[in-house]
Amino acid sequence: MLQPSYRTGDHLLEALPHRRRWTLPLIICLAALWLPQAAGSTLNCHRKCICASNIVSCSKMNLTLVPTGIPHYTGVLDLSYNEITKLRAEWTTVSLPKLHNLLLSHNGLYFLSSEAFINVKKLRFLDLSSNSLRQLDEFIFEPLAELEVLLLYHNQISQIDRSAFVGVMKLQKLYLSQNHISRFPLELVKEKSRMETLSLLDVSSNKIKALPIEELKVLPAWIKNGLYFHNNPLVCHCDLYTLLAHWYLRKLNSAVDFKDDYTCILPGPQKTQVAVFDLSGDYMNCSTFKEEDEEAFLEQTLTLDCDTKQRNMSKTWTMPGNVPVINGGNQTAKVLRDGSLEISSVRSEDAGTYTCFAMSEAFNETIYVVLKVHNFTIHGTGETLNTAYTTLVGCLASVVLVIMYLYLTPCRCFCCPSKGKTRGEDSIHSSMLSVTPTHEEPALKADLNKHVAFIDSKDLQGQNGKLNRSGNEDEDLDAEAGSLMKGKRKKSVAESISSVFSDTPMVV
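The line above is the sequence of Adhesion molecule with Ig like domain 1; the predicted structure tokens follow.
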């Protein structure tokens, strides 16, 4: 007799107590509901996602995790407008070698694993905008060596590690606007650390208060053309005005397109916000910008740059007088490989306006460079300075010698000891000046002794400045006075010298 057969499931259910038979189905149902959320639901191109060839779009599907089972041939994956708050390393367990566009905007994403992009190394476009990212850690984008465009705008980023973009060597456009960045990321555009392909950096609408003005001035035009920093609380300064005025004069897109959005805060307690391009008026009276000319010296080798707004353009030059520059000719100027013009052994006739014509498939640009040539060599300036220095030293030495001569020479008159003076000779009205040579004969010495007499007019009224060597001065004075009273004039002695004023020194 055949025994009835039982299925395994029925046997297990019968083996369980009656009151617990409902427990096992409940556990299975809960596991079915929980497991897809833990590991990500399997991709379903008919219900939750739209699949079109190599494009997979799962936008606005209220996903909290990235679906699993994404085809390896996927080129574009759109996961925007969902609720994926964390992007862990295992969000895709298989490599996606053909994925070049990944869209994760509007997800509330606040966590990025350092290994989140290990399996998508061929990405060229990554959209992480409009999320809740707060910082960019070191080497976070290092696996993305092929990345060209990175969108990080409208997040809450306040900290960017200086090595966050290391390894992203092909990045062309980086959008960091509408964040909380307070430091300008100079390392992204500085010559020795910048990515050579980066042509657009947008740090507008952040919290940057100061800019490295001097470093920004020397950047190539193709970088300045795509460097946007408007709508930041910058402090007003004339250097900031000069920088933007130069960019506007060059018609750079970053200055022309957002001219009215470049504002700054005036110094002072009121914190008044004004337009940067108004600083040349009443606010700070900044000097109007004017393009400076190139300067050169005779026999100097000079290089003129054709600083275009785009890279990799074909460039040709003309010299003053619209003379084309032809390499290999007899001209002293030649066009280098980077498009700049080299002038060897500059001459006076090389002065004038040089024109660079830059052309590409979609853009043409003309740049004028005015060259001024000084009429001396660059070493002549040093020689002129040396001559001026020598002249100055000579003048100072002459002044020192004159001072020494005036104040350090030996005494010859008033400080010498007196010899053979009588008591009456030291009167307050006369003094002795001896010019007698020390080695002359006695008779000649006696003749050379002379007196300088200062005669007071009160004592010698009517004398008219005459002196007598006879030794009887009182008698002569009386006679002279009497003669004057009678209207007669006494003849002067032959050896006397008349003086106009009575107190004028007279040599006797």
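Note on the example: The domain at 41-283 is CATH 3.80.10.10 (Leucine-rich repeat, LRR (right-handed beta-alpha superhelix)). The first strand starts at residue 50 and ends at 52.
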